[in-house]
Amino acid sequence: MTGPVHGDGHDQPKLSAIISLHDSAAIVVFRGELAAPTGDQLRRQLGSSLTRFGPVVADIDDVVVRQSDLLTLFAEAVREAGGWPKAKLAILARHRHVREMLRASTVAQRVAVADDLDLAFARLGRRPELVDACWTVPPDPRRLAALRRELRARLEDWQFPGEIEDVTLVASELAANSIDHARTQFTVRLDLTADWLSVSVRDGSPTPPRQQPPDPRAHRGRGLQLIAALADTWDVHPHAGGKTVRAGFRTRADQPPSRPDA
Question: Which of 103, 123, 143 is the last residue of a domain?
Answer without folding.
Answer: 123
